[in-house]
Specification:
The radius of gyration is 20 Å and the shape is globular. The relative contact order is 0.17. The protein contains six helices and eight strands, in the order ββαααβαββββαβα. The protein has two domains: 167 residues, Spore Coat Polysaccharide Biosynthesis Protein SpsA, Chain A (Alpha-Beta Complex), CATH 3.90.550.10; 37 residues, no CATH class. The strands form three sheets. It has a four-stranded mixed sheet with strand order 3-7-4-8. A two-stranded antiparallel ribbon has the order 1-2. The protein has a two-stranded antiparallel sheet with strand order 5-6. The chain has 236 residues and is of the alpha+beta class.
Length: 236
Amino acid sequence: MPRKNIIILNGKPMIAWAIEHALASKLISRVIVSTDDEEIARIAKDYGAEVPFLRPAELAGDYSLDVEFHRHALEWLQEHENYIPDMVLNLRPTPPSRLSATIDRAIELFFNHPEADSLRSVHLASETPFKMWVIDENGYMKHVAPLPGVWEPYNQPRQKLPLAYWQDGYIDISRPRVILELNSTTGNVILPFIVDEQAIDIDNPDEIGAVEAQLRERESPVDTELVKTDAVRHPS
């Protein structure tokens, strides 16, 4: 989807939702947008974000890594402002129906685990990787995820396999030293943050309608409690 971050969702550019949720957080001190696009920069400023620099074009390609623009931002802030944050949060624009309270819960969890290099949001995967395959260069199948101590996990009942979790892009948090010293956004000790509510991540145009409906539900004056259950549905 070309220029996906500024498509209009319920009257606002997609990036505006992420900015507003970050600004509504009780724990985030600065909201900075990294972009190489002057129009996106202008829109981000209009909605209250800082855009103190433009990202170099070589760090904004389809195959650019998160750690590249994280490092660029940290090095720019250190050089020009003598500023290094305590944590770096990555709020991608593509799941626009986040909740600010959930962002704050993630920050509090990470704060209480100083041994962790990073936090990554996940939810229970709908399918188990222990029953997934790749096809090698000779045309034969090899299973994706061996399981130590379990013979042929792909032939085991799914209820006997470990639960697997999918990284969902709701929120990622990294320590600056991990980015600058290890050249990684995750490091070695990764804290899971299990997201209870659904937040649709927009990858294709046919998902826009469902996201807009979800945003309307989030903005409803009736603040319904999230429904939680102790029953675990094992992935297929």
